[in-house]
Amino acid sequence: MKIVNFATRRPVSVIVIVTVILILGFFSFSRTSVDLLPEMNFPMAAVITSYSGAGPEEVESQITKTMEGSLNSLSGITEIQSTSSEGSSVVLIMFDWGTNMDSAMLDIRENISFIESFLPTGAGKPMVVKMDPNMMPIMQIGVSGGENLEQLQDIAEDVIEPRLSRIPEIASVYITGGNVRQVSVEVDPVKLENYKLSLAQVVSVLQAENFNMSGGQYEQGQRKYYVRNLQQFETTADIEDVRILTSTGQALRLADIAVIKDGYEETTQYTRVNGEPAVGIHCMKQTGANTVSASKQVLAELDKIEQELNMGLEINVVMDQAEYIKQSIQNTEKMILEGALLAILVIFLFLRNWRSTFIIFISIPVSIITTFILMYFSNASVNLITMGGLALGVGRIVDDSIVVFENIYRHRQLGETRMLAAQKGASEVGGAVIAATLTIIAVFAPIAYVQGLTAILFRPLAIVICCSIVASLFVSLTIIPLLASRMLTDETMEKLNKLNIGEGRKVTDRFSRWLDGLSDRYSKLLQASLKRRRRVMVIVTLMMVASLALIPLVGAEFMPAMDTGEISINIEMDKGSTISSTEEVSAQVEERLRSIPEMDLIFASIGSSSVMLMGSGSHTDVATMYVKLCPRNERSKDVNEMTDDIRKMMSDIPGAKIEVSVMDSSGGMMSGSSSAITIQVTGDDLQVLKDLSTEIAEVVRNVPGTREVVSSLTDGTPELQIHIDRDRAAAYGLTPMQVSSTINSAMQGTVATQYRVEGEEVDVKVLYASDQVQDIDYLKNLSIYNSMGMSVKLSQIASFTVEQGPISISRLDQVRIANISGSLLNRDLKSVMDDIKTGVDKIQLPAGYEVEYAGQNQQMMDTFGDLALALLLAIILVYAVMAVQYESFFSPFVIMFSVPTAIIGIIIALLLTGRALSVPAFIGMIMLVGVAVSNAIVFVDYLKQQIDKGMDRDEAIVETGRVRLRPILMTAFSTILAMVPLALGMGEGGEYQAPLATVVIGGLLISTLITLVLVPVVYSILDDIGRRRRQKKADRKAVSTELSLD
């Protein structure tokens, strides 16, 4: 081969090229971003619309349905989901994968602009948001200590938030907890009624008395002056002295009818770190930013702030994604090193020579460093998936070098010169290693047809593996022949078996004798198999059938869960519970958590439905906790076991529903759904949906292995519903909006203006004194004034009922749905869903109601379908590549018999390790198609060469087995042992690669052992069939020739 001859004859050129590649590789690695997973661009957008004071059903009818009907006309939409809750409508739009979301966002905004005029008065402006994993904070910080929460809030807002926001890679900083300063104007409703005044008049007067307005400009001489009218409150006394006129013309001081308090907003949310009051700070990164770099800059800035303030503050990093990323990458790097060492150990056992082993070892670092260049130009980041690809490729990287070097070594043993042996040995197997490399590339080509999350995660893996084996092919055909031609001197060959390496000599000698004996026994086995071909085929067939019968015992799941050591605890009190009662229960939970030795940190958010998502909302009857455990190697239990222990520990706390689950820091984006189990019931009537969802939820709870089963249709907070009589209101000159506005002001207050103090804008809120707002009688007697100043009691124009409506109403593709969700414990998703379906099928559904299985189960089935097609295409492409390479249909067909035998090893490996079939395992099956045929290619390629030289077929088969057994076993076991660290799945991030490596190890091991017998047998059978056909054809031709002569 020309490239081999070039490499051996021009060593300086090769050394210079390799040196440049290494320099570029190190430079590329330093410039490549580091993250946990590949960048994800989800084709999802949300339209969020506020409608203050409206209940879920009113929001649904007046906003959500209008939005859905309009948005449904957009092209490329696959699904529309919506949630209508109190005062808010959220419509989630999902597009086809690959959709240009920038263009889609423009289409959504244009569509919304056409329907804004149809929305009810009082509805907020719809906000369009692109769903992005970057919405999740990369870091959460808890600031505690100091004198009080007010001081912490000021420091967080005035110091920490501005400085962190200036970091280029940080997109936004969000603060939770703390107290917000507010001036409250608490009006006495009795005095207000006596003076015939309304809250609206008080608000108007305050607005009129506090302003900063431009008055234009004027010129005097050569100078220009700007005019500004300043009438601003400077102290609370200024607010107290505000004059307000009654209907009789009397001028009252505001202090005559109200009490002005300079204090804080009513607390509806608390934050605690390890039981201490704190302010939470959440940092979101810029899209495409390096998470590790961003985290490093944030930590450096926090250190500076802590030193500069020197106020006894305690700044705790509650959650830092970069920490887990670094641990995962370091763990993967460790597995790469361990795999490389195990592979080299195998090679040494076979070669028994450190110099020869070193020649092959060179292929690993050179190939890996070269891969970083290709990664840089393909915009792939260093992450758990790409580093896993390198770890998986380590064993395969040395395969080409082993085959090339072993053949060079064999030619040197035959007495050929170093240069001739290098050129002839490498060229002789060059076609085989190229074919083997092309088959690996071919198996990953169909990944391009896979869509969704699987494509996002595993295309980078495919790219990295393909890049690494292309680099290894280059090394095997250039550096290996070059080094062999220089290092395999006559002296080295003479000393091959005389190296003094102590105890290792005995081990290698023993192994060499065992290998020689194995070679002899294998030759005899081949001879016996060729005589009993039918028996061999029957045995292999029975083995495959038996393994296929075990498939039902193998579970299935979408993605293996990662043990990040993070647990989420959700506390749900009785609807309408106060923040103080929720805090009491939270304190009990925190106290019990602190008794767990593996506990590292507890971050509690009382009054919030999420500790992860920005703007998750405030609810006085809920609390969430983020629990961080110590590193995995410091605890005896995994995160699932710890979660179950905590769940049992909290089961006897009264007055609250406590859910404990493994933390998914991506909010469900990684797994496709935040819950493993998702069942959707569709229909129109909310009560029927509620009854059905309750029944189905009970079925799910009774299935072993299910946890935290909940229905989305639960009773909401008890609400006093006020029904305004439009005709009676109109008779008094009032509109429903005026009435609603007055009620809202009376119950919640109205921000009239801002009071500037110490450089800070403080809200001035007008509201009724809290001791006067007590019950329904107060509301019934609430005075409402029309434009003429005439008052009317609310009871005169409205009726009152106490209801308990739904918390929210969910819809899917414009149809109401109830969601039943749950998590798993110690069971795989497929077996659990099979049991659930069996139970749900027994439920009699009313006409017009349907049950659908969505979430991870649906995504698993869809993805497995895509991957099955990719597997089929991979097999076809591998055959096509070999057919082109050999210009033959026969040889590739023989080689492909090594693929189905891998199924036996796959099933056995999954059963022995207790692992379920998942997306990574399926990717391993696809990869195995290319890996499994490599050994068969080496065997058949050499066999054809011997037959072409005139050797008898059966003798050629036995000779090929004798010559090729060593390189086949060497490549197979180096690949297998290199993947063992990955298959163990130990350490942070190991869960993703473990199923893939397990499948490849099991499939390659069994496939290699069976292929060594099956491929020769199949070759001989098909060759006999071909010979008989050729003989019959020749006989027919001879007969026709004789007849023509007659």
Tell me what the structure shows.
By secondary structure, the chain is α+β, with helices and mostly antiparallel strands. Among the domains are: 1-31 and 352-499, Multidrug efflux transporter AcrB transmembrane fold (Up-down Bundle), CATH 1.20.1640; 44-131, Multidrug efflux transporter AcrB pore domain (Alpha-Beta Plaits), CATH 3.30.70.1430; 182-264 and 719-803, 2-Layer Sandwich (Multidrug efflux transporter AcrB TolC docking domain, DN and DC subdomains), CATH 3.30.2090; 566-717 and 807-858, Alpha-Beta Plaits (2-Layer Sandwich). It has 34 helices and 30 strands. The strands form 7 sheets. Strands 1, 2, 3, 4, 20, 21, 28, 29 and 30 form a 9-stranded antiparallel sheet that branches. Strands 5, 6, 13, 14, 15, 16, 17, 18 and 19 form a 9-stranded antiparallel sheet that branches. It has a 4-stranded mixed sheet with strand order 12-7-24-23, with helices on both faces. The relative contact order is 0.11. The chain crosses the membrane at residues 12-30, 335-351, 358-378, 384-409, 429-449, 461-484, 536-555, 867-886, 893-913, 919-943, 963-984, 996-1022. One of its GO terms (cellular component) is plasma membrane. Keywords: Membrane, Transmembrane, Transmembrane helix. GO terms for molecular function: xenobiotic transmembrane transporter activity.
Set down the secondary structure blueprint.
Blueprint (H helix, E strand, L loop, with lengths): L1 H8 L1 H21 L12 E7 L5 H16 L5 E9 L2 E8 L5 H15 L11 E4 L8 E7 L3 H17 L4 E8 L3 E7 L1 H6 L4 H11 L1 E10 L2 E9 L4 H5 L2 E3 L5 E3 H4 E7 L5 E4 L2 E10 L5 H19 L3 E8 H31 L2 H8 L1 H15 L6 H30 L4 H27 L8 H25 L1 H9 L2 H5 L8 H29 L1 H17 L16 E8 L5 H15 L5 E10 L9 E12 L9 H11 L6 E7 L14 E6 L3 H16 L4 E6 L7 E6 L1 H6 L4 H13 L1 E8 L2 E9 L7 H5 L2 E3 L5 E3 H4 E6 L4 E5 L2 E10 L4 H12 L9 E5 H32 L3 H6 L6 H12 L5 H30 L4 H32 L5 H56 L1
Parallel strand pairs: 7-24
Antiparallel strand pairs: 1-3, 1-4, 2-3, 2-28, 5-14, 5-15, 6-14, 7-12, 8-9, 10-11, 13-14, 13-17, 16-18, 16-19, 17-18, 20-29, 20-30, 21-29, 22-27, 23-24, 25-26, 28-29
Helix pairs in contact: 1-17, 2-13, 3-4, 5-10, 10-11, 11-12, 11-14, 11-33, 12-14, 12-17, 13-14, 13-16, 14-15, 14-16, 14-33, 15-16, 15-17, 15-29, 15-32, 19-33, 19-34, 20-31, 20-34, 29-32, 31-34, 32-33, 32-34, 33-34
